[in-house]
Amino acid sequence: MEYVYAAMLLHAAEKEIDEKSVKAVLKGAGVDADDARVKALVASLAGVDIAEAMTQAVAAPAAAAAAPAAAGGADAPAPVEEEEEEEEEGGFDGLGSLFG
Length: 100
What we know:
Elements: H1 2-12, H2 19-28, H3 35-45, H4 50-72, H5 81-98
Helix pairs in contact: 1-2, 4-5
């Protein structure tokens, strides 16, 4: 997870996400970076619009949660907790796969 966070931090800081910068962020956090994992992360992010991927990952669970409320109004039954977890995980699967 720390590799993904390093990439997200670099993206938020509008810095280039390359092996050197990811390793620097991880080192700063006290993480002993695995060169192969860093290389895989950087390769998997090549050509990916991270802002768009994050927007889709956040919007999908929100849209899924809003749909039952809009369809049933106040009388709609509350979703089962397991279903909510599946929806949330489903929304973030795409983002997770982008970061390796």
